[in-house]
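Page 42, continued from yesterday. The earlier attempt failed because a stray header line got pasted into the input along with the sequence. Redoing it now with the clean sequence only.
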Amino acid sequence: MSTQVWLGILFLALIVIWIVELYWVARMAEEWGRDALTLVSGAAIFFVFAAPLTMIAPGLVERVGDIWDAVVRPLGTRARRRRQSTPRLVMPGRTVFLEQERIRIGRYPNNDIVIDHPTVSAYHAELVRRPDGRYELHDRESRNGTRINGTPVRQAIVKDGDQITLGAITVHYLEGSKTLEALNRGGVPIKRR
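This time it went through. Structure tokens are written below.
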């Protein structure tokens, strides 16, 4: 094969690697609670070094992303506003955006949100979106119970900033960006029901 063919194959392989890295950066941004559009925009310019630079120098990647965000602000603002207003559960190691009508939570792998911990029941709880858009938490006859802000519940409407405890695992229910910022600064104060 000629040198041109080898260079073409190499170039295609690098593009595939780049696309996979950008997808990974977007997924990690959601888990880290950061704006995926800004992080991917900042990482894209670094081509095949997108993922390593995001891990090594996330601040640099975010600054570059902010520049791109300023250039394409109308698209970035709409996407960020939509993501910040989407309810989510923040738990150790990940953030899950709640975009379904019904979300099953438990230890078994066929739940929508799997929490693999011995104190979490197989089918522990369920979040159901009400017609008014709020989510209601239902305990599914769990062995170790479900609590919101320390109070045992069988069924209750969750509010922004609530701490939901399933067995021994606590997750935060967030709706707005201010609550997420407070959580990133060290926590959200517990509100008693």
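Notes: The longest helix spans residues 3-32.
Reminder to self: strip header lines before submitting.
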